[in-house]
Design brief:
Blueprint: E1 4-10, H1 22-34, E2 36-46, E3 54-58, E4 61-69, H2 70-89, H3 100-117, E5 126-130, H4 137-143, E6 150-153, H5 161-164, H6 170-177, E7 182-185, H7 188-200, E8 206-209, E9 212-215, E10 218-224, H8 231-242, H9 245-252, E11 258-263, H10 272-285, E12 293-298, H11 307-327, E13 335-338, H12 344-353, E14 356-359, H13 368-376, E15 384-388, H14 393-396, E16 401-403, H15 408-419, H16 423-439, H17 442-456
Helix pairs in contact: 1-17, 2-3, 3-4, 8-12, 8-13, 10-11, 10-15, 12-13
This protein binds adenosine-5'-diphosphate.
Adenosine-5'-diphosphate is lined by residues 18, 20-23, 25, 263, 265, 298, 300, 341-342, 344, 347, 366-369, 372.
Length: 457
C-alpha cells in the first residue's frame, strides 16, 4: 500500500498545542487510521535560511515540520491567506484587501514547502494537499519533476468566478489547481463554481465523464467530498466527559437553567455579533427565557495578527458586557463568554449537556462543530441544534432548526422554538441527523478521497 503524505499549512504537532480548527481535527482523525507523513509549518519563524524539516514519530504518524522566514510569514499567512483568500472564499468582500507583496510571499512560501518536502518523498507516495494556503504546491512539485498522484482538498467554500475575479492574479490560482489530479470540495456547488470558472476563462476543453474534465492539456477529477467526523469517537468522549466532575460542577452553577452552547474560533465568518444580538432579542421578546436559559459561548482567538480579528474580539467583549449589564440578576448572568481554547474532552461533555447548540456562521465551508454537537447528544434525551442555512453542514443536517444568520429576529425565534421543542420531536430530528453523520463520517471522507485519487492517477 502506498504511503499517504498529507500537507497542510499547520500541523497539529504532537508536542504541543490544541487543534482548534476543522482541518486539524479532520486530518488527524484521517491519518490515525492508516498512518503516514504529515508535513507542514511547525508554528515557528526564523530569520535565516529555514533548516531541514524536524521529524517526530508518534504511533503510525510521522510529523515533519518546517520553519518559515519571519519576513514571509506575515504576508503569506496573515496577508494573502487570511486577508485575501479567506474573505473572498466566504463572500465577505468588506474584509478583503490586496497587496502585491502578499501574492509574492504566497508564491515564495509555496516554493519553500515544495523544496523542503521534495527530499522526503518516495516514488509510490500519494500526496494529499489541504486548503487555500497551498493551492500552488502541486504546480511547484510538478516543476521539480514530481509525478506522484497529488490531490487537493479545499476546506472552505470555492467562490463563484464573478467574486474570484476580484482578486488580482486569480487566473494563476485556477492554473495552479489544474496541476492536481483530484480537486475536492465540500459541496457540489463548490465544484460547479470551479468548473464554471474554468469554462468562463476558456480553460475547460472537455467534459470526459461526470466528474472528469480536460483542462489545459491535463485530465482532472473534480468532485465533492463533504468532510465528516469520527461519530463514535465523539459520542464516547462526550458520554464519558459529561459524567465527570467538571461538567457536573458547571451544570450545578447553572442553578437548574438550560444550557445554550456556542463553540467557534473567534472569526468574523462565524456570525457571533449577530448571534449575541439574537440572544438579546430572545430575552426581550420572550422574557420567560430569562429564568430558563444560560448562553455559554467559547471563542478562542485566532489569526490575531489580522486587524479584523482584533476588531471583532473587541466588539464581542463589548456586546457580552452590554447584554450582561442590561439583563443580569444577582443569581443569573445571561452570557458566559470564554475567550480561550479548552480540551476537546471538556467541550464534548458540555455539548452533550447543552439543551441547545447554536451554530450560526454567516458562511462556512462545512462546520464541524454542528456535526460534533449532534454526535455528542444523549440519544434518549437529545438537545436541539439551531443551524445556519449558510453553513454547508446544513445540507446533511437539514433536520436541525435552520435559520438565516443575518436575520436576528428569525434566529431568536429559532432559539425559542428549540427551547420549547418536545422530546419526541428532538429525538426524531436527532435520529435523522445522526444517520446522515454515520453515512458520511471521517473514514468515508478519507477513503472516498484517496480511492478517487488512486483511480484518477
Ligand atoms: P473552523 O475550521 O472554521 O475553525 P469548524 O467548526 O469546521 O470550524 O472546526 C472547528 C474545530 O475546532 C471543531 O472540531 C471544534 O471542536 C474545535 N474547536 C472550536 N473551538 C474550540 C475551543 N475553544 N477549544 C478547543 N477546540 C475548539
Amino acid at each position: 500500500m502506498s504511503r499517504l503524505v498529507a500537507v497542510s499549512n499547520r500541523v497539529a504537532h504532537p508536542k504541543g498545542g490544541r487543534a482548534a480548527g476543522g482541518l486539524a481535527v479532520g486530518l488527524l482523525a484521517a491519518l490515525n487510521e492508516n498512518g503516514g507523513l504529515w508535513f507542514g509549518w511547525g508554528g515557528k519563524t526564523s530569520h535565516g535560511q529555514p533548516s531541514a524539516p524536524e521529524i517526530v514519530r508518534r504511533g503510525n504518524i510521522e510529523y515533519a515540520t518546517i520553519d518559515l522566514y519571519e519576513a514571509d510569514f506575515e504576508d503569506y499567512y496573515n496577508g494573502y491567506s487570511n486577508i485575501c483568500l479567506w474573505p473572498l472564499c466566504h463572500y465577505m468582500l468588506g474584509f478583503f484587501r490586496f497587496e502585491r507583496r502578499f501574492q509574492d510571499a504566497y508564491k515564495r512560501v509555496n516554493n519553500l514547502f515544495a523544496r523542503k518536502l521534495l527530499p522526503l518523498l518516495k516514488d509510490d507516495d500519494i500526496i494529499w494537499v489541504h486548503d487555500y494556503h497551498l493551492i500552488p504546491l502541486a504546480a511547484e512539485l510538478r516543476r521539480a519533476g514530481v509525478a506522484n498522484p497529488i490531490g487537493f482538498f479545499l476546506h472552505v467554500p470555492f467562490p463563484n468566478i464573478d467574486v474570484l475575479r476580484t482578486l488580482p492574479g486569480y487566473i494563476n490560482l485556477l492554473r495552479d489547481l489544474i496541476h492536481y489530479d483530484v480537486i475536492g470540495f465540500q459541496t457540489a456547488n463548490d465544484c460547479r463554481n470551479f468548473t464554471e470558472g474554468l469554462s468562463r476563462e476558456g480553460m475547460l476543453q472537455a467534459k470526459l465523464e461526470h466528474d472528469r474534465f480536460r483542462s489545459s492539456g491535463r485530465e482532472i477529477t473534480v468532485a465533492p467530498f463533504p468532510i465528516g467526523i469520527d461519530v463514535d469517537g465523539v459520542m464516547q468522549m462526550a458520554e464519558k466527559s459529561a459524567a465527570g466532575a467538571t461538567i457536573a460542577r458547571t451544570l450545578d452553577g447553572l442553578a437548574g437553567r438550560d444550557l445554550v452552547l456556542g463553540v467557534d474560533r473567534l472569526d468574523y465568518s462565524k456570525g457571533l455579533p449577530e448571534r449575541f444580538r439574537a440572544f438579546e432579542t430572545l430575552l426581550v421578546r420572550y422574557p420567560e427565557t430569562r429564568s430558563r436559559l444560560v448562553y455559554m459561548q467559547f471563542a478562542p482567538p485566532s489569526r490575531t495578527g489580522v486587524r479584523a480579528y482584533q476588531d471583532i474580539r473587541e466588539e464581542l467583549e463589548r456586546a457580552a458586557g452590554n447584554i450582561n449589564g442590561r439583563f443580569a440578576e444577582p443569581d443569573w448572568i445571561p452570557i458566559r463568554y470564554l475567550n480561550r481554547g479548552f480540551s476537546r474532552n471538556m467541550l464534548m461533555g458540555l455539548m452533550r449537556s447543552a439543551k441547545i447548540g447554536l451554530v450560526t456562521p454567516l458562511r462556512d465551508g462545512m462546520n464541524l462543530v454542528a456535526k460534533e454537537y449532534v454526535a455528542a447528544q444523549d440519544p434518549k434525551l437529545p438537545g436541539a441544534l439551531v443551524l445556519s442555512r449558510l453553513a454547508c453542514a446544513a445540507a446533511e443536517l437539514d433536520a436541525a432548526v435552520l435559520v438565516n444568520p443575518f436575520d436576528v429576529e428569525g434566529m431568536a425565534d429559532g432559539i425559542q422554538q428549540a427551547a420549547n421543542m418536545p422530546v419526541k420531536e428532538r429525538r426524531e430530528r436527532y435520529e435523522a441527523m445522526i444517520q446522515a453523520l454515520r453515512r458520511n463520517d471521517i473514514d468515508a471522507w478519507r477513503t472516498r478521497f484517496l480511492e478517487t485519487l488512486e483511480n484518477a492517477a
